[in-house]
Amino acid sequence: MGESVSIEARGMHRQGMSPPLNRIAEHCAVFLDFDGTLLNLMDRPDLVVVDGCLLYLLDELYVATAGATALVSGRSMDNLDALLTPLRLPLAGIHGAERRSADGSVKKIAIPATLVWHTRMALRLRLRRYTGLLIEDKGCAFAVHYRGAGPQVAMRLRVDMQALAVASGGVFDLLEGREVFELRPRSCDKGAALESFMSEPPFAGRFPIFIGDDQTDLAGFEAVGRVQGMAIAVGPRVTAPYWLPDPAAVRAWLRGCLGLGN
Ligand SMILES: [Mg+2]
């Protein structure tokens, strides 16, 4: 079954139009979420394996856009770099709390170390009564994955995590993703990260495209929408003017736009 057929076959889940197969070249800036957008979600984020086809595709995008291709993810930049070796792309990590520009310069949000430590310890103490959680300590953000734990656990966990956000005095916000709660610095979101990229070369003045699959990507959709760019939602969790069903369809669409075929 071809990619276009698979998109049509799942038409009942469509939440927007299929994006047109336009050429992606030096007039475009491409921003991509990672998990659930380029790769299928796994039960645990550390189980993700990046295949050679994805590395090749990202490299082709990077060259075709003359360097204006960036990943915008909830993962840390260190984690993304490790997964994408040997590529070294512009990145926004931890929902924009850290960002590497096209020229390699890095900016990270500054949060007082004592507040980070207090939040870390409060989180660990509060979550002792749970089993089966995976706590991802990103240094300046904390993701708690509860995949498969069920709605009761999710409800209790939301209350606990919200209490920690309140205790941070507004420094941390509670963010909800697919079976994950995350305390992330309030001042950061993917929209702000995209706007920062779009104010810098080589992204500035380009036609922006952003593809994402989760609540955390909505701010990114809005950011590209404000400058008449293209927002593409992936899967059933979010909506945008354009829609693709899954990471396989995202990759097929990107390959098509690059003229790479299947
Ligand atoms: Mg995602």
Structure, explained:
The protein is an alpha/beta fold. The protein folds into two domains: 2-108 and 189-258, HAD superfamily/HAD-like (Rossmann fold, 3-Layer(aba) Sandwich); 113-185, Alpha-Beta Plaits. 34% of the residues lie in helices and 20% in strands. The chain contains eight helices and twelve strands. The chain has helices spanning 3-9, 52-64, 77-84, 113-126, 151-167, 190-198, 218-226, 247-258; strands at residues 28-32, 69-72, 91-93, 98-100, 106-108, 134-137, 142-145, 172-177, 180-185, 207-212, 230-234, 242-244. The strands form two sheets. It has an eight-stranded mixed beta sheet, sandwiched between helices. A four-stranded antiparallel beta sheet has the order 6-7-9-8, covered by helices on one side. Helix 1 (3-9) packs across helix 8, helix 4 (113-126) packs antiparallel against helix 5 (151-167) and helix 6 (190-198) packs parallel to helix 7.
Low-pLDDT runs of 5+ residues are 1-13
Oligomer: single chain
Please state the structural category.
alpha/beta
Q: Give the overall average pLDDT.
A: 91
Which ligands, by name, code or SMILES, are bound? Answer: magnesium ion
The CATH C-level name of the largest domain is Alpha Beta
* Largest beta-sheet details: 8 strands, mixed
- By DSSP, the count of extended strands is 12
What is the domain total for the residues?
2
Major sheet strand order: 5-4-3-2-1-10-11-12
At CATH's second level, what is the architecture of the largest domain?
3-Layer(aba) Sandwich
Shape: globular
Query: CATH homologous superfamily of the largest domain - what is it?
Result: HAD superfamily/HAD-like
